[in-house]
Amino acid sequence: MTNKSIFLDQVGYSPRMKVLQFFIEGRNFDYTLTDLLNAEVCW
Question: In Å, what is the CA distance from 12 to each residue of 2, 7, 16, 17, 39?
Answer without folding.
Answer: 16, 8, 9, 7, 18
